[in-house]
Design a protein that fits this description.
Helices cover 21% and strands 19% of the residues. The protein is of the alpha+beta class. A hairpin with a 3-residue loop joins strand 10 and strand 11. About 13% of the residues have low confidence.
Amino acid sequence: MNESAFRLQIQSGPESGRVHELTKDSLTLGRYPLADIVIDDPTVSYRHAVLTRSAAAYRIADLGSDSGTYVNGQRVGAEPVALSPGDVILLGSRLSVAYLAGPVATTALYDDQQSEPLATDAPTLASIETSGEQPHAPEAALLSPNDNEPPVEEEWGEPPVGMSEPDPGSEQPALVMAEPQTTSGHDGPLPAMPPPQKNRNGRIMLITAGCLIALLACCCSSTLFMYFIGGDWLLSQLGYLP
């Protein structure tokens, strides 16, 4: 990575310590699985904020998130705000991210280190021939006199009734090895990004007002019907009118 590269380092939250290198001119931050930088935190919106690269650094803008985006304690709106190395970005209510510049520190691997040969106490063949000693066989001392006898082959009895040897001419069913099925987190295409929710409270109030108007119309119509038409008929049925 060159010295002009930038990165985001998560300081708090479920992925604390993780580093995201900024390699594109525009990056989306949020919980959406197809976002450029996926942040799995319940306080972060699906499309929370966006980073856009300018000539010398990145700028950040909020995408209408519920919990807001803050840079060094100042809230950021839809208008992009330029970032400087060392700025602290707050996404949601608890997840903070540091905006850093420069290459990521990595641990160097030294290939020129040579490991020392391991010392062994086992005698070599050349040393045995030079000294004239016979090779020591510790296994021979552990064997009992009966262990030198040749092994006796066990006699297998006849197979039990009902079991017969397979016929060489008959075709045996081939064993089919089932390939292991691998499961991943996403078997199919990822779901589309949900559309932004409209004003839910206004819709509920409109439905409630419509129900009340319909109920009032029913009450008024039934009252007028009983007053002009149904009342006399009901009283005559009850015997109060001749």
